[in-house]
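Chain A, query sequence.
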Amino acid sequence: MKNFKWFVLMVVTIVLGGLSFPAYARSAKEIVTEVDRVSRESFSSTVQKMKLSTCKYVVKKRRMRCTEKPRVKLIESIQKDMGKNNADSYSIAVILEPVSDRGIGMLTYDYDAVDRDADTWLYLSALGKVKRMISSSENSDESGSFFGTEFSVEDMESNKIAEYTYRILKEGTYMKRPVWILESVPTAKRARKTRYGKAVSWIDKERFLTLKVNLYNRHGKLYKQLTMRGIEQIDKVWVSRRMTMNNLSTRRVTNMELKSVAFNMEVPDEFLTQRTLTDFAFRERYLVNLRKHIK
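Chain A, predicted structure.
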């Protein structure tokens, strides 16, 4: 199930992309490895604002319609790769709107080492407390949710290639693009930590982008569907302006819209700490400069 870190956590919203490569015969693992390489080399940091809208839905006349007023959140996130000799990635996301949720934040340390799970902390501004989050399969959908949306904390983490086995199911087209359709299955060790039994991904052959992912539960039933739309290049990085996570189990959907973004900014290491979650003045001092470059 590699290719989940389309958001960089986020987050949360960058689609894996980069240069074009010839679509000659490749193994499934070689394709996944290439997507991972392109992603790592496309940018070193991101600053972005995104709008997340979540609602319960019904399908009428083949169209999805909300049955309630959507819950809308505006989120600001910053991510940084820690260096050439350190493949770890640190990120922070903070809610800007609505006012009732303003200041709630999440800090994630995503480690490259296969034997080390990501660390995630959630800051509840109303309580002034930071708590450690656990994204394992033992959690309910709500407890493992990314800010109350249908994206889970696990979805926002970077999955490690060695923790999955891969195979090409077939080749075809999707959204008028030539694609490989790959199946990813967690190893026995990874299976104990994930709620997903497998994933099927549609990978753009020419741009090495993930265009769609079907996520299955442990019993082999289709659980969630992730789709990407509005794909464009910004500063030579492929991004998806719109992502949709459809939870077929709960009949709830989250639409994620990328409002603005900037790449390869200088992000100090001290910014990506718990102090940024809890200290508004400290956080704003850095964000004033970073926000000048987003578009």
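The radius of gyration is 18 Å. The CA atoms of residues 47 and 287 lie 9 Å apart.
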